[in-house]
Amino acid sequence: MPETSSDRTKVRSHDKEFAPFISAEELDAAIKRLALEVRTAYMGKRPLFVGVLNGAYYFAARLLEAMPELECEITFVKVASYIGTSSSGNVTQLIGLHERMEERHVVVLEDIVDTGNTVAHILDALKEHHPASVAIATMLFKPEAYRHDLPIAHVALRIPNAFVIGSGLDHDGLCRNLPGIWRIIDEHA
Ligand code: 5GP
Asked: Which fold would CATH assign to domain 25-161?
């Protein structure tokens, strides 16, 4: 019996069920709109994109392929901050920051900004490398859950405060490969 099963209108992963929320087409259209915004902001500045693994691989690939005219570099970092379906609030690790950042325009690529603890931690770490500027671009943003003052400069889609999966976002390691975004079905609703 596989741990994940899908009947297209519902997905079961571990003990939770998820319903379709944002189609792959809608998500990709939003990422393409965001790519125009980012391209306009960074044309001629040769930005360094810093994707946050594991979840941001999908967003990073779709965003960068939508702006081939922009001269840019990309690298990836990894953090461990999230357990199960609620944020632990503790960012414990930041791995893989080896590029020279001095004088560079750095754009952090996140899959989703929830409380904002993860991006706050990453920005603190990046600022120690004295970049010319640092900004955040995220595929999804939950304004109701956000607990920081840092501006989230570039957002593809704002969503309500619910646990979501798909397009890079996991449920305890599973479901990153589901197309589009799926929202948890609240068993108490
Ligand atoms: P934050 O530090 O902003 O609370 O959370 C950031 C990280 O928590 C994201 O990079 C992501 O890994 C995880 N996360 C937050 N909300 C969700 C969600 O709704 N679904 C999934 N799959 N991960 C989430």
From this structure: Rossmann fold (3.40.50)
